[in-house]
Design goal:
This protein is an alpha+beta fold. The protein has helices at residues 3-6, 32-65, 74-85, 87-96, 103-121, 144-178, and strands at 129-131, 134-136, 182-192, 198-207, 212-218, 226-233, 238-245, 250-259, 264-268, 275-285, 288-297, 302-312.
Length: 315
């Protein structure tokens, strides 16, 4: 989407009502840089919440499993159960933490079990047995093959589902976000209120291990600069936009829906906003983007209507 073009400074900062989330910097609201930082650190806060909830889940199930499974090594056995049932934390990290850092969660999970195994193996909870001339010495019930089998029984199926989902969604989001990457000549036509056409350049690039796309504008006639962050939202299966302006205003578009057959993305405002919006971007080919935007007040009056065309540059 020619995002900064479609939602840019053609809406003056003195009329923030034309944007459902526009906040002039002068009123003490968060700055564009603050909001950008919040978007970046948001996954970390989400990961912390999932960790706390996952540990609570693991402790409860490990305590219950203590009375079901034949592992009687007391504290190391309970901790082994916590380790097994804590695997959903790792799966959650795989979904919400961008980049290669999420793989350190898997490494930490595997390393954490080594001292537990050593501890559990030192506790001989199965007494020695004598079968005629065959003597079985006392041993631990936390044999590696038994723990691995229990882990696969509990965590194998959901792991396969999550891995297949990550692989398919990663391919899908890469394909859509890739359409924005590059340098574009952008032309904005404002139909309501009538204004002269504007033009500038937008540059989209991958960031955060190809989980987001960031754009910056240059050459805008009014002297402002915009920054755009685009990302795929797993929860809604949509594409969200954060648009920040050097004028101190910003706009957030709730995740839009990608229509693969028609090669379009469409955004609609959530309910109960005093200002509604509807935006749509079409990709007739790999080098052209055509977008429309309509903003209305609660009475249905059109506050802003724009048409944007972006053509890929060769440089």
């Amino acid at each position: 989407m020619a995002a900064s073009a479609a939602f840019e400074a053609s809406v003056p900062a003195t009329t923030p009502a034309a944007s459902p989330h526009a906040l002039p910097a002068a009123v003490g609201g968060p700055s564009a840089s603050d909001l950008y930082q919040a978007a970046i650190v948001g996954p970390r806060h989400c990961a912390l919440r999932y960790t706390i909830a996952g540990l609570a889940f693991a402790v409860v199930f490990a305590a219950a499993a203590r009375f079901v499974y034949p592992i009687r090594v007391d504290l190391p056995g309970v901790l082994m159960g916590v380790w097994i049932y804590a695997w959903p934390i790792v799966l959650a990290f795989m979904l919400i933490i961008p980049g290669r850092r999420r793989w350190w969660t898997v490494v930490g999970y595997v390393v954490a079990v080594l001292p537990l195994w050593a501890w559990g193996a030192s506790v001989a909870d199965i007494l020695d047995m004598q079968f005629g001339s065959v003597h079985l010495p006392a041993r631990s019930s936390t044999a590696p093959q038994g723990i691995i089998g229990l882990w696969l029984l509990v965590n194998g199926p959901p792991t396969l589902l999550i891995v297949s989902f990550i692989a398919s969604s990663a391919r899908a989001q890469d394909t859509v976000l890739e359409k924005f990457v590059g340098r574009w000549d952008v032309r904005v036509k404002t139909l309501q209120p009538p204004k002269p056409d504007l033009s500038h350049i937008e540059t989209y690039e991958w960031i955060l291990d190809r989980k987001f796309v960031r754009a910056r504008t240059e050459g805008k006639t009014e002297g402002t600069e915009d920054m755009v962050v685009v990302g795929y939202d797993l929860k809604t299966d949509g594409y969200a936009f954060w648009i920040f302006s050097s004028s101190g205003t910003f706009l957030y578009l709730a995740p839009g829906t990608w229509d693969a057959r028609n090669r379009t993305i469409e955004w609609k405002s959530p309910l109960l906003l005093d200002v509604s919006y509807q935006a749509r971007c079409a990709f007739p080919d790999d080098n052209t983007r055509r977008c429309t935007l309509v903003l209305k007040n609660w009475l249905g009056k059109v506050l802003l209507e724009q048409e944007t065309t972006a053509v890929r540059r060769n440089d």
